[in-house]
């Protein structure tokens, strides 16, 4: 049996996922180091979302396993995985649009509520107050950190796309994650919104100590932020390593050329300035 790397928070081991005749993932393996920003990239249809859905428990793999801190997640439903410390955002924003920003954030903490209607009977009022106070502290810290105090009472539907994505990040943070899965965090954002989000992602890792696993098409962002990049093509891992290695890998270049998705890699080369010279970006090192 394969040993678990000491610093690994998540191990994806030999995962195969099938939809009828379509093999979305074939024997996919990779590790996510604790405290890292790890990205999964690949052309359209490569299997990135399938990996995320398997990790968060929405899809059941036909073979393989996923280990969180060395413990198999097999058989655990998505809420159980979330309670363990595995939070995620979605490619298409999954917020309650009619509800306020604050109420959406409060929903995030729901997976950690200790007191259900029955539990409340055995929970002293003092302990309940204490728990409520702690929750409020976390909410305030998140609101302050993500600079969304001015919109806390606004309904989500009234916000710009970039702000909605930020609220989604806030809700994920309220789940007190140990690892945060971000599915295309900057898709559809303008340049300024993208740079803000990049800054927040770096700070989530640095200030909150949360490991990040993200799927993203924006190559500039992936290469600037990631410590480690895993490349998928046709459901298989074709390369993994530090950004510079992956970018120079001929098989990766071929995969992007072959898929007609070469603009994604080209976008990277258009912006040749080092990360430190780009406004809003800081080196992931
Ligand atoms: N629910 C599903 N039913 C059937 N086939 C699916 C389903 N979800 C994904 N697939 C197939 O599995 C493969 C991988 O899809 P997936 O969405 O994981 O790729 P992706 O890399 O996330 O793509 P994109 O970059 O376009 O979001 C594709 O061939 C896709 O058509």
Automatic annotation (TrEMBL):
The keyword Nucleotide-binding applies. Keywords: ATP-binding, Cell membrane, Membrane, Nucleotide-binding, Transport. InterPro entries: AAA+_ATPase, ABC_AA/LPS_Transport, ABC_transporter-like_ATP-bd, BCA_ABC_TP_C, P-loop_NTPase. SUPFAM superfamilies: P-loop containing nucleoside triphosphate hydrolases. One of its GO terms (molecular function) is ATP binding. Residues 10-259 form the ABC transporter domain. Pfam families: ABC_tran (PF00005), BCA_ABC_TP_C (PF12399). This is ABC transporter ATP-binding protein.
